[in-house]
Amino acid sequence: MSEEKKLNQKLQRLQSLLKDVTNLNNASALLGWDQQTYMPPGGAAARAEQLATLEKLAHQLFTTDEIGQLLADLADAGFEYDSDEAALVRVARREYDLARKLPPALVEEMSRTFSLAQQIWQKARAEKDFSQFQDILAKIVDLNIQAAEAYGYDDNIYDALLNQFEPGMKTAEVDAVFNQLKAELVPLVQAISAKKETVDDSPLRQNFDEQAQWDFGLIPLRAIGFDFERGRQDKSAHPFTTSFSVNDVRVTTRVYKDQFATAIFGTLHEGGHALYEQGSAAELDGTMLAGGTSLGVHESQSRLWENVVGRSRAFWQFYYPRLQEFFPAQLGQVSLDDFYRAINRVEPSFIRVEADEVTYNLHIFLRFELEQELLTGRLAVADLPAAWNAKMQSYLGVTPPDDSQGVLQDIHWSGGMMGYFPTYTLGNVMSLQFYNRALADIPDLPEQFARGEFGALLGWFREHIHRHGRKYTATELIRRTTGDDGIKAGPYLAYIRQKYSDIYGLGE
User: Which of 386, 387, 352, 408 lies closest to 123, judged by CA?
Assistant: First the structure.
């Protein structure tokens, strides 16, 4: 048998084994989606066991010596770097090396704990009582520490967890980007606060029928390119996106009758994630190459559609008359200009997902700092609510009135996701690097938005980002797409500075 034929057989065997692993992971994702949408509360304990079993099986199947040997044999096969074959070996090798470091018992315990914790968190949040969540959060922190020690790191334990969500990124690099942002955003918030009376957001805090909000949100979701033949939207306690295939991508949102912005911008945000998931090349479906290459790149897509597009004047030039048709009593007498300013009002607030563009990153900074303190033992879980409130006061000048609007607001820690939060701000930064490149290639994008046309922008992202799935790292995608040699905060800061100076008349 020729060497080429042997390599081809090994590649087919690897692809077959990895497809089984991917199918098990997708089955877990489907159970996770159901857990957060339709599962009755009484199903929590059984669901935790089901997920633990599936994730144990996936881990066992993935970490076999056979897969390790196949990856070793194929590493020197001479595949072209840009080929799907070379990318599959690269990505699977990275994932395999990490998975082998985790003891199977730890994988099973993490899955079981994180599943149970989500139900405990939901109840604690509803009852505004951190004490109900405290013990299991302490266990979650400990499990993350165990995982980080198993993965290994040079000098910062946070690096090991950050690497799960933003491969190759170091905490020191995040610090450098965040410090550049802080230097400009903190004084900008202060300057805007001095002129906060110039923008009124009361039109958004009227009584908006919840079903009408839901119905309206589906219109732009479909228009930006979400394919309802390959996806659906449901409601959940915390908005999220998940996928089980390129052809089955689920988004959720939440609707409040007296907070109009929550549903529409939640829908656009999750829609951005979903466009990325639906946009992987068809031939990558069912392989480890489908989906987003990092959480930062994923958040660049969601934050771009939510904010750069969704909070733009051009977007609402088209959609505001339609929105007024849905809510004539509430918005019939509110001008487009007043509505545009209202949805872009800057005001320190308690809830991250409802924060404006300028203060949003401050919410991320405090979570990033608190996670590091928890993981290094500098902060005890019991002291977390007080530390949270102190940092909220320091960064934003507000103190949450209760735990549900403070330390309990996010789902991430209940799902074991420590090291995730920085990717939101990294995504904000990347979104402007990508958007500026798209705008250079398609200069009339804002005019297209004003006509309700988003196909050119989506097509640009399909070509440059989405179709590649996980073939390239975030750094490689940025370099290939923009020419930049990594994450650069400059374009994002310039966008924020110009947009909000115009809205608030800064410098006048």
Answer: 408
Residue 282 and residue 466 in contact, taking contact as beta carbons nearer than 8 Å? no
Provide CB contacts within 8 A for 463, sequence distance 6+. none
Is 144 within 8 Å of 416 (Cβ atoms)? yes
- The domain spans of the chain are 3-133, 171-504
Q: SS3 of 483, please?
A: coil
Region class of 122: left (phi > 0), else alpha (psi between -120 and 50), else beta: alpha
Q: Give buried/exposed letters for 33-44 (b at 16+ CB in 10 A, else e).
A: bebbeebeeeeb
C-alpha–C-alpha distance, residues 78 and 398, integer Å: 57
Place of tokens 């998940």: 242
pLDDT tens figures, 232-257: 999 998 899 999 999 999 999 999 99
Tens of pLDDT along 493-503?
A: 999 999 999 99
Cα 272 off chain centre by = 10
Q: What is the DSSP letter of 244?
A: E
Question: In degrees rounded to 5, what are phi and psi of residue 290?
Answer: -75, 150
Alpha carbons 203 and 411: distance in angstroms, whole number: 29
SS3 state of residue 15:
helix
Task: Tell me if residue 85 falls in helix, strand or coil.
Answer: helix
Is domain 171-504 annotated with CATH 1.10.1370.30? yes
- Going by the DSSP 8-state scheme, the letter that residue 249 receives in this structure is E
Tokens of 61: 């199947």
- Note the pTM of the prediction, 2 decimals: 0.94
Query: Phi, psi (5° rounding) for residue 385?
Result: -60, -40
End-to-end CA, the chain: 78
CB 143 within 8 A of CB 113: yes
* Contact assessment for residue 192 and residue 506, using Cβ atoms and an 8 Å cutoff: yes
> Residues 457, 439: contact at Cβ < 8 Å?
no
Distance of CA 508 to CAs 222, 228, 230, 453, 504, Å?
A: 40, 47, 49, 34, 9
- The span from the CA of 321 to the CA of 299, in Å, is 29
Give the catalytic positions in this structure: 270
